Amino acid sequence: MALEDASLLALLLSRGESLEGVFAQFEKSRRKRVEAVVEAGRRQKSNKGEVSTVGMYIRNTFISLLFRIMGVERIVGKAWRYRVDWEEANINKVVKWWRDGKLIDAA
Predict the structure, then answer these.
(1) Do 9 and 27 form a contact (C-beta atoms < 8 A)?
(2) Rounded to an integer, what distance in angstroms lies between the CA atom of residue 23 and that of residue 18?
């Protein structure tokens, strides 16, 4: 997330007037996504445990098949489709989601 944060912060600094306003906008733009990433991490942490070599092979094969069948976009969720649209004139709409090959406004 550090590269995305740096990109958004650079964009806001290039268009912002005061540092306080820039950082307030940065927090507002990032909060939803960061909370989604933290929640995904908590869910992943709860199902960790010791796995044998055979168990790892079976798990990895199953995950690979699952990604092929369901598609990566459905599995990884909205939090990882985040983009910063440098062309957007409205500073409140620079954070977008990447869906179906297009940037759409984050809701």
Answers:
(1) no
(2) 9
Domain residue ranges in the chain? 2-105
The token duo for 65 is 């098949």
Beta strands in the chain (DSSP E): 82-84, 95-99, 102-105
Q: What is the greatest pairwise CA distance in the chain?
A: 57
Contact 15, 23 (CB under 8 A): no
**Which is it for strands 102-105 and 82-84: parallel, antiparallel or unpaired?**
unpaired
Residues 6+ apart with CB under 8 A from 5: 26, 30
Amino acid at 60: N
For residue range 24-78, list pLDDT tens digits in order. 988 988 888 888 888 877 877 766 677 788 988 898 898 888 877 877 666 666 6
Say which residues have a Cβ less than 8 Å from residue 67's Cβ, sequence separation at least 6. 75
Length of the chain (residues): 107
Higher-confidence position of 65 and 100 = 65
